[in-house]
Amino acid sequence: MMEKPASPARPAEFAFADLQQSKSERLADKVYENLFHAIVTGMIAAGTRLPSENTLAQEFDVSRPVLREALDKLREEGLIYSVRGSGTYVKDAVAGETQEQLGSDAEREVLERIGQMLDGIELRLIVEPEAAYLAARRRTPADIERMRGALDRFNEALQKGAILHYHDYAFHEAVATATCNPRIVDTLKSLEYDVSRSVTLMRFLVRFQPLVRVEAVQAEHEEILRHIEAGAATEAKRAMRNHIEHARIRMLNSRPAR
């Protein structure tokens, strides 16, 4: 039986990340990750009608075949569905889904992925404070401009209600780049959160309050940049360590949404 839309058909009002910031990755994957993240975190509510394919393709600055590839993947995962003559709608990603329904294998996968995330934060605690230290000693005007640009895009996305995690990562990558050590950059790239490989985890975490208090992240980024720009290496290292540690605390202190 064809599903009925849960709310009146109307274009959604939301914003997306600038995919052209990451040309090295397949654009279809980037479109998918943006839409996936927006759906499972509730940025695009269940029952919302997505904009037309033409509009979405323009928003993401991709071709329609690229967009359709991303939409097909979301459809296969049961996150969206189409109503003939009406449009494409967002499903409730976790409606009625309990831990019992997830099953022991899926629950084990969730716990493993949470463990992997915590392992990644532990590695970041080792690598990124030292990267900030070196960045403060070696940064160039171009490096400072790159970091400031990433933070400006983060702030702009925040104002628009857009997805933030790509801009967050861009700032950390810019800090790593300022070390002039490509191995540090490669290490950081290995830690970038890959939404497309974390479907089960995200469907579990969506039942929790947001893991990130955006205003706190924003202030921590600004402090790190301020110390790097001033060449205050020890302070930059301390600020980066505090930022990563706070990220771990925010994750562990999340509570089920009421």
TrEMBL record:
Is-annotated flag, keyword rRNA processing? no
- In this chain the HTH gntR-type domain maps to 25-93
Record-linked InterPro entries: GntR_C, TF_FadR/GntR_C, Tscrpt_reg_HTH_GntR, WH-like_DNA-bd_sf, WH_DNA-bd_sf
What GO terms are given for molecular function? DNA binding; DNA-binding transcription factor activity
Q: Which UniProt keywords apply?
A: DNA-binding, Transcription, Transcription regulation
The record's section on Gene3D superfamilies has: GntR ligand-binding domain-like (1.20.120.530), Winged helix-like DNA-binding domain superfamily/Winged helix DNA-binding domain (1.10.10.10)
Q: Does the keyword Transcription apply?
A: yes
Residues in the signal sequence: none
Coiled-coil stretches noted in the UniProt entry, renumbered to this chain: none
Official protein name in the record:
GntR family transcription regulator protein
What species was this sequence derived from? Polymorphum gilvum (strain LMG 25793 / CGMCC 1.9160 / SL003B-26A1)
Origin organism lineage? Bacteria, Pseudomonadati, Pseudomonadota, Alphaproteobacteria, Rhodobacterales
